[in-house]
Every structure is written in C-alpha cells, then in structure tokens.
Amino acid sequence: MLGIPDDPNMRGIIPNCFAHIFGFIDEQQEGMTFLVRCSYLEIYNEEIHDLLVEQRRDVKKLDLKEDPNSGVFVKDLTCIIVKSIPEIEKAMNFGTNNRKTASTNMNADSSRSHSLFTIYIETGEEVEGDKEKRIKAGKLNLVDLAGSERTSKTGAQGQTLKEGIKINLSLTALGNVISSLVDGKSQHIPYRDSKLTRLLQDSLGGNTKTVMIAAISPADYNYEETLSTLRYASRAKAIKNKPKVNEDPKDALLKQYENEIMKLK
User: Fold this and answer.
1) Cβ of 249: how many Cβ atoms within 10 Å?
2) Smaller CB count within 10 Å for the chain: N or C?
C-alpha cells in the first residue's frame, strides 16, 4: 500500500492516490471548490488507535459509534484539512511511524495492526440557474490489512503470538462477512464480529466501489497459504455493491464553511 514513497517508480497505492487526487483538483475549472481532509487509524489487538496524535504508552482507545446519516464512525478521531500533496504526505508519514510492526521469521517488518487511511473529499459546483452550489461528498478508504502468517512458520512467541491470534481472528471475521454477502441466503451479515468489519461495513456490500488486492508468496513452501489467499480473494470478487453519488449530504462541511465565510464578510 505504501511502497517506497520517495521513489516515483516504487511508490505504493496510497502515495499514488495523493498525486491523482490533487492532480485532478489542479485541473478543475473556476467555479468549483474542494475540501480535502484525512484521518489515519490502526486496529491493534481489536483496539482502535489514532495514528495522527503523538503516541504515548497510555494510548487512548477510541470507540466506534453509528450515526443514521453518516453511518459508522470513530468518536474523537483526528481529521485534518490538507491543501497539497506535501501536507497529506506529512500526515501519512507521521501516522506510519506510529504503526505497530514486529519482526517474525517470515517478515522483518510484519504489520501487527490493520491500518485505515481515509481521505474525505467534498466538492461544491456552481450550476447555472441555481443560487446554491451543488455539493457532493465522498470518501476513500485505503486499508492495509495486517499480515496473515501461520504461527508455526513465524516462530512468534509472547506478545507477537497474541497479536497474531487477534489478526487472524479479525481476518476470519472479514472472511465470514464476505461469505455471508456472497451466499445471498444469509439474513444476518456478521459485521459486528470485529472492529475491522464494522469499520468496513459500507465498503462491503454497501454504497461504494471496492478493490481488494491479495498479496501472495512466490515460494513453494507457502503453497497452502497462497491457495487459501486466492480462495479468499475469489469469494470477495463475487460481492455486488451498488454505489451512488452522495449529492448534497446533510453533514457536508464545505457548505458550513462557506456559510461561515459569508457571515463574516
């Protein structure tokens, strides 16, 4: 997801998204306004931590809440306004340095947490004959799942072993949600089994376009894991989402800020 951010040829999906989004904004004609914000969190041992705040030993655990208009959200999560690629890159680098990684026999920098970098974009467009701007809002969830590694092969012990168990539990919960969505017969989708599936609720079978990238190993001794990952991806491929444009959402911040500027003028 990150790659090597400083090398244009080795950059991952997240830094490439920044270039794409701000490149698009720079090309837009007059009469359009944009508001771009971002947040960065990790799910570590089924606890949500804000990666955009200075990490201390007594890291504050954040709670998941649900709102009828905006859906599932994380209470008190830091959300910062960014106006350029350097600003959003600075936020990403700060958060990435706060992430939990550990060395195992299979991976020197195995991610011990799932991370979720979210970019919120609101646009205001002037339409002929309309006094008010047409507001649209959307968000892009960039998810980096923790490495799913077999305990027998990683040689994990103590804290790393506990982390591995939690990671595999949340990935199993994600697999169960995918199976229920694909099945078509299930009355109940088990989103609440894990914080990960709860946060990704609208990305799985909701109002969104979703892309899942499965990373597999070229080594023959990882044959079983590769097969298991491909089965997982194959099931995910069968999910059908129904995305629609979020026009004039009630909680659009852009409208709020523009009204504030008008008042101040």
Assistant:
1) 16
2) C
Which residue from 32, 116, 21, 121 is spatially nearest to 77, judged by alpha carbons? 116
Pure H helices in 184-222: 195-199
Residue 200 and residue 141: Cα distance in Å, rounded? 8
Tokens of 82: 């960014």
Q: Where are the alpha helices (DSSP H) in 44-118?
A: 85-98
Whole-structure pTM value: 0.84
Positive/negative CA dihedral, 75, 77, 83, 84: negative
For residue 165, pLDDT over 90 is answered with: no
Phi first, then psi, for residue 104 (nearest 5°) are -125, 175
Query: Residue range 196-204: average pLDDT?
Result: 88
Task: Give the residue from 118, 120, 152 showing the smallest Cα distance to 34.
Answer: 120
Is residue 22 pLDDT above 90, yes or no? yes
H or E, element range at 32: strand 32-44
Nearest to 117 by CA among 88, 138, 146: 88
pLDDT band at 111 (very low <50, low <70, confident <90, very high): low
Tokens 């350029």 belong to 84
- Over residues 162-171, the mean pLDDT reads 77
Of 85, 89, 79, nearest to 37 (Cα)? Answer: 79
